[in-house]
C-alpha cells in the first residue's frame, strides 16, 4: 500500500511503479479508470489470496528513517525519512508450489518498452531467481492502449545486456511474440496468473 | 535495514524483532556481541546471496506515509509517517528451488518461548504458505543463553491454536525435540540454511 489519502481527499501515490526513487504526482490512466498499475496489482493479489490461489504481496516501499518522535500516549511518529532504492523487485510469493518474483512497469510509448524503466540490480536479481529455479518475470503496461503483457525476465535481461551496442528499448512486437497478453477485467483486475500458467505451466 | 545511525553515533533499531509496532530502545544481547537478531540475519542473508546459495531478503519495514515535502534540488523528505503492522512475515525468498518464508523472534525466557511474540495474521500466513508447498518456519533466539533454533511453523501454529485452553508459550523441550539447533559463527553468523537442510532436505 503506497497510496494514501490526503485530508482533502486527493489520492497520491508515494512511489511510482516506473522505478524512479522520487515520488511523482498521480497520473491518470484514462484507459483504466484512473487506477495505477500498482493499485490494480494489489487488488489482483488480494483476489488471489482470498481465493487461496496464490500468496503474492507487494513489498513495502523501502524508507530510510532518520528521526522518530515518541509522543506520550500516542503512536511513534516518523518526522524525517527518505525514499530508498529497492534492492529487489517489488512483488514476490508462491504459486503452485513455485517461487514467483516480478516487477511491474508501465510506459506511454506505443511501439516499444524503454529499458530505462529498469535498474541494473533488478536485472541481476531476476537472473539470480531464474538460476535458483524460481519464476521471474515482468508485467508491462502500455498505458496508452491499456494493454498488459507478461514477459519472462530473460527477455528483458537479453535486451538489457545488449543495450550498449544496440537499442535502448524492447520492441513491442518482440513482447507480443515472446510474452503473453494478460486479460483484464473486474475481479481480478489483472489476471496475470493465467499468463503465468500459459508461459510456465502449459 | 531498520537500524540507522544517529548523528551522535548511537545505533537504534526502528522496529523490534519481537513483533511489536512501537519501536523500542536497542537492547544489547551480551551473548552475541550486541548484534540484534535482525542484523545477524541480514548479514547471513548477505553471505548466502554473495555465495549464490540462496536469495533471501528481509522485507522493508512497512510505513504509512502521511506527508512528503519536495524541496527543490534535493531529495523528497517524508515529514510525517507511522509504523504499520506487517501483513506477512519479515523474510522470504528462494532456496534450492523452494519458496522460503520465515519470521525471527527472540526471548529472554529460559524455559519456553512466549506466543505473544507472534501475531494471528503471521500464523495464518505461514499456514497458507505451507499449504501452497512452501517452507514456512520460525527462527527463535533464546537471548540469555544465545541459543538459536529453527522450528517448522506448524509447531508454532499448533501451540497457537491451543493457547485458549492451554499454555501461552512453547516449552523449550518441545522446541529442542521438534526443531533444529542452528550453528552460529562468524560467516555466516546464523547458519540457518544448514538447519533448513536438516529439517526439510534430509
TrEMBL record, chains A, B:
Site location (Transition state stabilizer): 105
Renumbered residue ranges of the record's region Disordered: 1-20
Entry's Gene Ontology cellular component terms: cytoplasm
Key word Magnesium present: yes
GO biological process: chromosome segregation; DNA recombination; DNA repair
Cofactor: binding details: Binds 1 Mg(2+) ion per subunit.
Cofactor: Mg(2+)
GO molecular function: crossover junction DNA endonuclease activity; magnesium ion binding; nucleic acid binding
A Pfam family it matches: RecU
Recorded catalytic activity of this chain's protein: Endonucleolytic cleavage at a junction such as a reciprocal single-stranded crossover between two homologous DNA duplexes (Holliday junction)
Enzyme class: hydrolase
E.C. no: 3.1.21.10
Subcellular location: Cytoplasm
Keywords: Cytoplasm, DNA damage, DNA recombination, DNA repair, Endonuclease, Hydrolase, Magnesium, Metal-binding, Nuclease
Similarity comment: Belongs to the RecU family.
Function: Endonuclease that resolves Holliday junction intermediates in genetic recombination. Cleaves mobile four-strand junctions by introducing symmetrical nicks in paired strands. Promotes annealing of linear ssDNA with homologous dsDNA. Required for DNA repair, homologous recombination and chromosome segregation.
Protein name, UniProt field: Holliday junction resolvase RecU
Species per Swiss-Prot/TrEMBL record: Fictibacillus macauensis ZFHKF-1
Gene: recU
